[in-house]
């Protein structure tokens, strides 16, 4: 067998160097010599055409099936890289002057809070801070404590302070990366830095994160593919972590020894990301030092570095940001950006781009000296503090909180037993009312949609459509452009779109390809009065003929659509669900793109004459949403509809606006048929149609 590395090696000129090594090492694929030769010919055709079309196959053999999936891989990588490049030009939302930036900043801060699920900001409920024990040494004290950032959401922490306190002290909140210290909580791992700050006249609060604390919750629901409903809810664990950070500062300033005007934030990896988040949203942070906490879309998406990152590092990019803008919200407060020169997850090429952007905003303020990028030299692949990076952070915080520029030494101290630093010493001490392990199900409030008042359906509909467009479909234009014909990828043979039957190829969004079969249709002909039916497929359904559930519902003329990722354009399952999570970073979901495909194919299918769309399960809901955006779709038939977006299809933030029954109600007065929809949830759809004066347009069977 011949071992060939992944498609991304074709693009080595755009890969960050450390990631090129990772890609070669981590994801080889085994292919036969014959298939390798065939693949090489396909790649040559790809280069010639500048399109992934040359990589598709239509044969049913195993090798050809793999090549079909390769079409989906290359097509998606090209599409996502293109979208990432588009966003990369949006630093500061286009502000070119300080006045422009200051005008935009309040709105951008609110947008960021929305994108991590913190807008409107939660109520600041009582912290119920409790110290469960102390460790007293000659020159420092450790307090083991917990507080509730909201009722039932426990934050466990260690607070390090000097033994002798005179006057108000500067404070540091230290966020920890994904070190796994089990039952002790990973705050215990960072005790050396806590000791250093306490011995040097600081109060230092080290927090456990949600995922690595004494009361763990989930951080990787998308990474492991188990909780896609997070996207529909508008939830990311970044929301919980950022809120816990805000409340940690509330706790610090409540202590009599803390100077509320001198508070620093610092951390590495996930803790570095959180340092950026809290500096962006809480102006009480007067100085920040973020280590290995940010990389840009070119690195995360184009070079697939997102495969190495936890979901807590990812916003839901609803507003299409270039994400260095988050760090810019900290300006002009002192900000240090610390990185290791060979960190696989935070490559230097991206770090240089981020630093250049941040120098721009600090230069606008005339505060160039308040931004510093510091590069430490570590072993190959290092993702950790080094002695010199720790000391650089200590010097930075000393300078900006104490005006002290004297030399510092590293944190080389005898460590305490980690078990001794637990907030809850035994399992019997753990609180029974803790919600940490289910907080993802309740942190972001979901919409409670009232039915339209009599005579108010049109206004009700326009309000919800506006919210959907803003929060769930922000990349959609007023009307989705019609799909266009494309060469049919079959190595060197291309069959044009105009055929009576058989697989056809259409381009939809940004040149993406979808497959369609026509039955009794010739494309590009004048519209006919009779409706044309479009059957939308799920991932496990075939283009060859209507699925069994659809057969009684269709007659010629009709077409069958396999939207992106279905059939010949399916992509290979990649580590950490790269394709699906990269969509999130460029402000969309895969299912949102499939709605685009349905609308784009339906529009020209009957020369913009009437079209009926039908689908089963999630594909049926995709068809219904396409009808919301495409006026030529006059009728929708939905078989076995899901009752909630919690099970799919997945659209960003959709449950903050409405759920499936209300979305179907928005179709009124168009004809809607619900098959096998006996669940009481669809009673709401019936009532909406009644209040729209379109009760006769809805059939439920």
Radius of gyration: 28 Å
- Give the overall pLDDT as a whole number: 89
Query: If you consult CATH, what is the topology of the largest domain?
Result: Rossmann fold
Helix content: 25-40%
Q: Output the strand order for the largest sheet.
A: 3-4-5-7-6-8-9-10-11
- Report the major sheet: 9 strands, mixed
Number of strands: 20
Number of domains: 3
Contiguous helical run count: 18
The percentage of residues in β strands lies in: 15-25%
Unreliable segments of 5+ consecutive residues:
1-69, 490-501
Shape designation: elongated
Which structural class do the helices and strands define?
alpha/beta
The CATH homologous superfamily name of the largest domain equals Alpha/Beta hydrolase fold, catalytic domain
Measured distance between first and last alpha carbons = 54 Å
CATH architecture of the largest domain: 3-Layer(aba) Sandwich
CATH class of the largest domain: Alpha Beta
Describe the structure.
α17 links the parallel β18 and β19. The chain is 32% helix and 17% strand. The chain has three domains: 2-88, no CATH class; 111-441, Alpha/Beta hydrolase fold, catalytic domain (Rossmann fold, 3-Layer(aba) Sandwich), CATH 3.40.50; 457-700, Alpha/Beta hydrolase fold, catalytic domain (Rossmann fold). The protein has helices at 17-26, 33-49, 62-88, 98-115, 191-199, 229-233, 237-254, 270-281, 297-302, 324-328, 348-364, 387-402, 457-471, 578-585, 590-605, 618-629, 660-665, 683-691; strands at residues 2-4, 29-31, 130-136, 140-150, 153-162, 169-175, 203-207, 258-268, 287-291, 335-340, 371-376, 484-485, 503-507, 513-519, 532-536, 558-562, 611-616, 633-639, 671-675, 698-700. With 701 residues, the protein is α/β, with parallel strands linked by helices. A nine-stranded mixed sheet has the order 3-4-5-7-6-8-9-10-11, with helices on both faces. Strands 12-13-14-16-15-17-18-19-20 form a nine-stranded mixed sheet, covered by helices on one side. The model is unreliable at 1-69 and 490-501 (pLDDT under 50). The chain has 18 helices and 20 strands. α3 (62-88) runs parallel beside α14 and α15 packs across α16 (618-629).
